[in-house]
Design goal:
Layout (H helix, E strand, L loop, with lengths): L6 H14 L1 H10 L21 E5 L2 E4 L4 E4 L2 H4 L8 H12 L11 H14 L3 E5 L2 H16 L3 E5 L33 H4 L2 E4 L4 H11 L3 E6 L13 H14 L2 E5 L12 H4 L6 E4 L10 E5 L1 H4 L21 H16 L1 H25 L5 E3 L11 E5 L11 H5 L6 H13 L3 E2 L4 E3 L6 H21 L1
Parallel strand pairs: 3-13, 5-6, 5-7, 7-8, 8-9
Antiparallel strand pairs: 1-2, 2-3, 4-10, 9-10, 11-12, 12-14
Helix pairs in contact: 1-15, 4-12, 5-12, 8-9, 13-16, 15-16
Length: 465
Amino acid sequence: MADYDYSVLLTQLGAEHHNRSPKSAAVHEEACRHLIDGGSHGIRLIEPFPPRITEATGGWMVDEDGHRILDLWQGHMANILGHNPQVVTTALSRAFAGGFGTQSGLVDALQAELAALVCRLTSSERIRFTTSGSLSTMYAVLMARSFTGRSTVMKAGGGWHGAQPMLLKGVAYREDGVGFEGVDSKGLPSALTDRIVVTSYNDPQRLVDDFNRGGDDMACLILEPMLGAGGTIAATTEYLRLARDLCTKHGALLILDEMITGFRFHAGGLGALHGVAPDLAIYGKALGGGMPVAAVAGRAEIMAEAGRATGPRVAFSGGTYSAHPSSMLAAKVFLEHLAGHESEIYPKLGTLGEAMRTGCEAAFAEAGILARCTGAVDEIDCGSSMVTVHFPHDQRVSLDTPEAVFDPDRCDIELREKVFGLALLVEDVHLILAHGAASTAHTDEDVAFLTDACRRAAARIARQR
């Protein structure tokens, strides 16, 4: 394994970024006077400072310094149609002009209409809306524990299910022999984290063993059909179907976290394309059409744990801004558009995603650097718009588990998570942690722009090795 020192290159890239983006740098410096680290979401605060955005339309955005930047981050992969799609903004503009859309604290017909639409598209029996993935996974775990009368929650190492205390374990990889077994935040009581079992993603035998050890107290297993923060790795059909069978056998609930994957591969959940029906599912990101909408959906008897007829046993209130009028409108218009144009949207996304993955790999290969992209779903007939660029030390490294892509003995983590993004940003391409996705607003010309940017970044990296 080659051990490269990127310190000089990072210093050069940081200086170039500062010199070409002085206005963003100044805004960031001022922001740090009042905001922790200069912002309110850690992952967006790329170092040494993020571009401060003044406009975002389609596949591109403009920063304070007037740079037009190709954006592959696309709102944490929420913007399937690109930034501010006209189908949504037109509906919102009309609603606001007509005196509807800001917070009311009341109920309206829209959330009922949206609920019926989501249930139809996802084969769910009941649904309740909230505003974030963190809240959704928290409520889902609470309902699973209440419904089963059990305490233990199982998740896969590398899986991120939001910043909520019942699942903040096994997210980050640690090189001290702990792997994905560590707790990911200070301030968590051990009474919570001790009840979280971390299994291995795409490891059927480990999953069987973990259920055999603790299945009698297992309330639920929560899984992403494709890991997001864990490396954009698709679950195998075998693994997902085994998870379904083991949950049924042991009386646990299967929760599919489809925050990223829901409505990203077709107008529904990715689990359905594998032939796997969860007991509960989490939706968000694309669900909202650019507005803050998330939801828990699933079997009626489980969702009833939050209903009046049962007590309620689970305090699933959703929050002040749950079912916010403009969010419900945006989500309904957006999902109707996705469902009505499914045969056009998803093949285009799949073609763009494949071209992005191929282009990135080829650009680095020209410079003699091995790059391989995850994000494809090879086992089922669906294209994928997702991409994460990895830099394995050897062609033989299999990128099918988070243990592989986060192990520094197998992949160049610093190149992926520190160097690559900054090297692209000075070329006017934006992604975070080498992670992004295509939208329908992107074009073949945008893919060529990305490939050329990767080519220039790769040449610069190769010169420093």
